Amino acid sequence: MLTTGKSLPEGPVTLYGPFHRLANPKTQSAEVARSMVESGELWGKAPRQGGNAAAQAWRGPIPADAKPGSLEFYTTVKPKPFGRSLPGQAAWEAEVEAGVNSFVKGNDEWASIPIVVTEVSY
Fold this sequence. Notes:
seven-stranded antiparallel β-sheet, 1 helix, 38% strand
């Protein structure tokens, strides 16, 4: 499966990944996974440890035993260097990494990056 809700830039592009998000009841339901597939975007708020809003994921392919609501993707936005994110994680921080969009929805600041979804577990 290869889906993107937004069009990619014309010409050659560099894709970073694979990355994945695992299903969990608070932030990654099957409904959230579907919205990511349809929009072609990964969104994120400020991490628990503080800082700017950031989209976050795990590095590497989706595990074979991933629960429904999990997905694997690539992005055209380079993540933070390994030493600037938690072990095993990738992060794209608003106002820090180039290509990360920042916006306010409700009272929350969000970061978003474009993604190309390659696998979804529903």
